[in-house]
Give the backbone structure.
Amino acid sequence: MDEVKVIVAHSERATLRVGDVFLKVDADQARIDVEVEAMALAPVPTPKVLWRKPPVLAIAAVPGTALARLGEPSTASPAAWAAAGAAIRKLHDAPLPPRPGRAGRNLDELAAELDGECEWLVTNDVLPAALVNRNHQVAEAAFRPWTPAFTHGDLQVAHVFVEGDEVTGIIDWSEAGQGDALYDLATLTLGHEERIGDVVAGYGTDVDLDVIREWWSLRSLLGVRWLVEHDFDPFAPGCEVDVLRSRM
């Protein structure tokens, strides 16, 4: 009998692994709809959908190992990081999906959320005001016009799987949709700034590195409270709070 392994579990969703099958349990069926649709449209390797019976989606494991983990040094080769950049470029160049994704949120709403999160971080003494204010200034510069692309929307480094120097699969597509391409690149390189040159080399076109750094601050500021409230640790070495400190 295969062991049941809890990959992630919180009040919004849970993912279990049984052998080579992942079971994703999500009360919000809209997220599952987005995920299934995006995997069908994306021109990059994605998990195979085995079956779906709400609220559960069963998908096959992809081969290989995660490109890296946030807070841990990456052992993947520069060529593997470049391959990830090339895969992301292929995704961004694909025909647009039918709906906006997390990387395409309304900028006014995003700015209001940023203001609220920064106020919460300071009021509750979670982070020093000087740290929050500096990163708030950096993050605001990410609010600029951008051309919509097919974005993953949650392209954490642990969501990209490689085998040798090849990308074997990209997982967790529930935030996919039309959005800012640089948001994906920033999410992938969050906490792995030393790898951004490899990613951009594979991506194959000039990108504004300042905007990527601005998204690092924005994503980290918006993530700290959620992570704390869902029993994750943004204060772990190399994670979100360290990313914010690096902007000082």
